[in-house]
Amino acid sequence: MILRQFLHSDPVGISYLFGCGGKAAGAVVDPVGDIQPYLQAADNAGMRIHFVVDTHIHADHLSAGRALADAAGSSYVLSSNARVSFPFKGVGDGDVLPLGNVTATVLHTPGHTPEHICILVTDRTRVDEPWFVFTGHTLMVGDLGRTELAVSAEEGAKQLFRSVSKLKGLPDYVEVLPGAYAGSVCGRRLSGKPWSTIGFEKRHNQAFAIENEAEFVGFMVAEIPPAPPEAAKIRAANSGVTAAAA
């Protein structure tokens, strides 16, 4: 297993390169900014990038996903529910991205956005059980992602509650690798520690610990963080509706 984490400060976010070193098959999750560090990291690890995944259509930064996929000759992956104006590899709940001895299983986790996905990763050279999960802006260390782009904040929170229940069904030892950390506008009380476990978040993440749907919805809509500046414009650009420079 190869895993590399890229921390970004402007905007605040986290990207990842992971995959099978033995079979030289890798993927990148939620790339931001200059694509060269990802290409170089893959080259250093002796891997070819087969997939570039965006966990959702981002509204806080311009995605580097399509540019990286083009440069690497790889597939650009989004949820099949994503509404964009360009070709992509659509995936749904339970689909698997094969990476040699590593498997990446898609979990559809709407709530932060309707098309949000998480990626559950298993290293079959060690065990057939999952090792970690890329949670994007659904589950972060210390909080859950604010709901957006739903019919209402309440409906988005209900979707998120169901998605959270799916993540809670994972073993407690599964590591949480989120798409953001402290300083991001996508959560309220995020930790500066950029990884955790399902079990720790169950015990110490107030939003993640709520079991009652009505209580959860009330909590999530009580203090929704404001959307990032020009969020609609950025999401439109990432959807291909407008040019990135517009």
The low-confidence parts are none
- Give the tally of β-strands: 14
Second-tier CATH architecture: 4-Layer Sandwich
Largest sheet: 6 strands, mixed
- First CA to last CA: what distance? 40 Å
CATH fold type = Metallo-beta-lactamase, Chain A
The amount of beta strand, in percent, is: 25-35%
Spatial order of strands in the largest sheet = 1-2-3-4-5-6
H-E string? EEEHEHEEEEEEEEHEEHHHH
Tally of helical runs: 7
Classified in CATH, the superfamily is Ribonuclease Z/Hydroxyacylglutathione hydrolase-like
**Structural class from helices and strands?**
alpha/beta
Mean pLDDT: 91
CATH class: Alpha Beta
GO molecular function, one term: sulfur dioxygenase activity
Protein name: Beta-lactamase
Keywords: Metal-binding
Domain Metallo-beta-lactamase: 12-180
List the helices and strands and how they pair.
Blueprint: E1 2-9, E2 12-20, E3 25-29, H1 36-44, E4 48-53, H2 65-72, E5 75-79, E6 89-91, E7 96-99, E8 102-108, E9 117-123, E10 132-136, E11 139-140, E12 143-144, H3 153-168, E13 175-178, E14 196-197, H4 198-204, H5 206-209, H6 213-222, H7 231-238
Helix pairs in contact: 3-6
